Amino acid sequence: MNIIIQKIKKLSLLIVNCTLLIVNCTLLYSCSSPKNEVSSPDGRIKVAFKTNIEGEMFYDVKVDDNIFIDDSQLGFDAKDGLNLKNSFEIIKTEFSSKDETWEQIWGENKNIRNHYNEMAIHLANIDSTYLIIRFRLFNDGLGFRYEYKVKDTDKIILTDELTTFNIKENGVSWSIPASFETYELLYRTLPLNEVEDANTPFTFKTTRPQDYKSTSLSVNESISSESVSESVSIYASIHEAALTDFPEMTLKLTAQGSQLKAKLAPYPNSNIKAIFEKDNFISPWRTIQISDKAVGLINSNLILNLNEPCVLEGDLSWIRPMKYVGVWWGMHLGVESWVMGDRHGATTENAKRYIDFAANNNIDAVLFEGWNEGWDSWGGRQNFDFTKAYADFDIDEIMRYAKTKNVEVIGHHETGGNIINYENQLEEAYRWTKEKGINCVKTGYAGGLPDFHNHHGQHNVRHYRKVVETAAKHHITLDVHEPIKPTGIRRTYPNMMTREGARGMEWNAWSEGNPPEHHVMLPFTRLLAGPMDYTPGTFDILFDNTRNSPQRKKWNDNDKGNSRVNTTLAKQLANWVILYSPLQMASDMIEHYEGHPAFQFFRDFNPDCDWSEALQGEPGEYVAIVRRAGEDFFLGAATNGSAREIEIPLTFLEKGKSYEATIYSDGDDAHWETNPTSYKIEKKTVSSNDTLFIKMAAGGGCAVYLMHNS
Fold first, then answer.
1. Is the confidence at residue 561, as pLDDT, over 70?
2. Does 33-305 carry CATH code 2.40.50.180?
3. Closest Cα to residue 407, out of 461, 449, 445, 358?
4. CA–CA distances in Å: residue 228 to residues 39, 133, 220
5. Known catalytic residue: 423?
6. Angle between helices 419-435 and 458-473 in degrees, nearest 10
7. Catalytic residue among 248, 414, 482, 506, which?
8. Which residue of 272, 280, 393, 708 shows the fewest CB atoms closer than 10 Å?
9. Domain 503-529+545-572+604-710, classified CATH 1.10.443.10, yes or no
10. What sign does the dihedral 459-465-470-476 (CA atoms) show?
11. What's the confidence (pLDDT) of residue 380?
């Protein structure tokens, strides 16, 4: 009997062990088989792709052999029974590489290296869906996109994107809340696991113990206190590239730690996210820029490299960077108006005054807002006429006068959100604009869209693309306000030069203003997506020790008593360098520049740079950026609400040559809140062997013009 009992126990144990073996094998298969992997050219970044037993798709990202993005899901949900997410099997995997250098017409850097390794996973499922997931790995990060083709259908309707970013370690992040209507929001600094939702670029930093291999520890092993004492930080930013026929992607925190899931802008009153009247679609690239240093994100060209090359042909000299002033700030202050009347800003007389100022101060162009009929319809369903000027704005005389002064005129198309009205006039408006001799147009979309569409859905993304293509056909460049966020389309259509897409200067005219940290947050967040028309350069900075004192000067009736520019004057100069735009504005009313010694920096400034590098900085704390234009250099440094001293070795200067440095810095008694207009100017001769010691006041900055000595 005992022998029988022992045999039964052994048999039971064998069954249990076999069961555990089967379970473990199943778990192993579901996590890692089949598996494909590709590395960045320098080998530091690796991406692995896998499917589980249900044919669901996952990827992970390693940096220096440590898990950075843990297993994260891929795929989409769709209507009408289309299966875009599971039952997939790998048909084949293709690997390729490219290493080339291409040249931009304009940009932070004229020459861009495009060096990557690619892995294209070909998949199919039992529901006749064919899919390629294409991964491209660069030394500064990666991108991946979906290329779907569905048999036996003539329409694909997406209802959700399943893409996740399962960030392995918690960390700190810098972002704005997710919104499908606006990007004009203040940035937050939050732990990764406290970000409920966010727009992109979504920038973050994680920290792990030095030399810690996250894949090498078992469940029961722990990290020693000695290994924790030294740590390695990774800075990263999640965004998208080549957004052309798709809703924008935002991020939403899931219930699992620091895992972020894609959330797409929807169609009105619907769970529909995208509609394709065909049997295939290609998504935008989902991107992750990666760097050891925060400034490495700024120096990355990944977003541009994931866009198609320029499609415009022939002589492209009509596309050129410019400095400009404009009839604009006075309207936000309330001392001028967009509507024709006693305070109308865009009059023939005022236009000529601005043109004269531009001609006398080495400024290329002048912007006129409020020039055309339709502004009196504001507040209802705005109905602008884009080919009919107000009676007091003689456009033919203004264009004649501007030509004699060799000054460009920047047109203005405010739609008020009425894109139906705009598209009805689009072709004729751009033909007429070019006929008048206007080569650049600023557009605006401040208002609700028809049929309750949101600003960032597929419907409006298609509209923005249509405008870019129409403008290109007529050889007109664009500056878009209330835009869809930049995703590198400027490579394909370089006439798309700059956009707003964040809280810009105008917020200082009628709100509490943008805080001192805002300007040193933007280079690490919004500007990672592309150039921004922030419109820096206001010199008339209001200040008061008590801020709410009844004696405090007010700009205008829109000023609620706390409106002001929250920087020093020197920081306003620095922002012309830091906040990159190929169309760079001196935003103040021109009377505040007349005879001002500090305005010489803008006279000397050249927005058509050849090379740029972010030298130092941390998000929301400080930043220093240098740009070269021809043989000269322009350096901008800025800080948040804390005073700061930094050292800048001038090793970027050409060796063996000397430069005259004109340094515009904060005065010894400067402070953004109590004494913002205190500044000083000094000159010295420097070379690549020298170091600049920059002292910045709270909320301050420093701008340096380094002129090559011939």
1. no
2. no
3. 358
4. 28, 37, 17
5. no
6. 10
7. 506
8. 280
9. no
10. positive
11. 66
